[in-house]
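Reopening: structure tokens for the glycyl-adenosine-5'-phosphate complex, inputs below.
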Amino acid sequence: MKKESKDNDLMEKIVSLCKRRGFVFQGSEIYGGLGGTFDWGHFGVALKNNIKQSWWKKFVDSRRDMYGIDAAILMRQEVWQASGHVAGFADPMVECSKCKKRFRVDQIEDEKKCPECGGKLGEARQFNMMFQTKVGASDDSSATSYLRPETAQGMFVNFKNTVDAFHPKLPFGMAQIGKAFRNEITPRDFLFRQREFEQMEIEYFVRPADWEKHFEYWKVQMLSWMEEVGIDMSKVHELEIAKEDRAHYSSRTVDFEFDYAFGRKELFGLAYRTDFDLKNHKLEYIDEEDKLKMVPHVIEPTFGVDRAVLSLLLSAYKEDEKGGEVRPYLKFKPNIAPVICAVSPLLKNKPELVEYANTKVFAPLKAEFGRVIWDDNGNIGKRYRRQDEIGTPFCIVVDFDTLTDDTVTVRDRDTGEQIRIKTSDLKNYIKERI
Ligand code: GAP
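Re-run output (same inputs, fresh job):
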């Protein structure tokens, strides 16, 4: 089988697993879908929350030099004029004279011929990717606003507020997690290129002379977080971005690329934004030591939540075969898995098993770990398959022996092995493994 079709198969398997198991659905699906938008189901929300919490814990909660912010998505148009996005946040686009479809120039093979109908493509023109809207009832141009295309500006425009409120000394950072919107010409590859997605960004303010040292430091930090959440590091590659390909604000960019099933493409990025943004917003910093005014420079580690999910799904997806049956499972690290353990009574029509499983296993584990689910649907084999696809590391089953010896079966997702342990040891057993 050709590698390409194998990889297409893998994407199909992942997209269908995500729908089947309630991770991700197409946006507006019952009305035919809205391109570039996705809705997140129960386990998808849990996975994203775990990713975001792990990021916040590492980069905000466990540091002294980081200040969180949650800025409004709608901002005055002056923000986007100063940031250069009104003038320069555009992709070159061509339109087919026959079928009227539009394409990004860098995503088609022949700039003259439509990849869909073979028609003639027109001249390339710049297409601004910001979603424009009007704020309030007025319809004039002063009411124009944009949905933010990056969370970064929410931090720059709150730089002064943060300095005035917390008096941080350089170097220090601001961190934000939130939605960003880009009217992508051709959204594609499932979660990879969407029109509405989530970012986790840091703007780290440094003395200009120190930028290289901090750039190198953040490279290491970014890689270490990727490893902590379980991204397959053998698929991650660093790419120094050439000057002509960098964003308008960046003097140096390193992309971390990932080997997705559809090719090696950007996962996260690290940029040296110099004083570009603070200067354009006319912001400065007064050094408390020498009382001199200066404009700090910015190192920006940026992470896409959705690409983190996609790379984790591709890293975790495994199949093994037993007795001629293929078993797909998601080998998530327990800290990131949407569910830590599932609890089942062997038979759901035996009240004594249900009672024991509910009161002595499920309730105390739920109170301790939160991400614990009750699963009594179908036979045990079916429950295991379902939990394997959700990526649940442990399945606990209460059976008739439990009622006499207070032990339960704990099944390991990755090996399929089952062991019996004392009900009273369950909490510690799981704690040690997460
Ligand atoms: N503030 C800098 C910035 O926005 P970017 O490289 O344009 O830089 C940052 O975006 C990250 O956001 C990317 O590395 C990627 O993970 C994610 N991202 C960007 N565009 C995306 C899209 N259309 N769909 C999903 N994620 C996207």
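The chain has two domains: 2-74+152-314, 339-433. The two ends are 38 Å apart (CA to CA). Marking as resolved unless the reporter disagrees.
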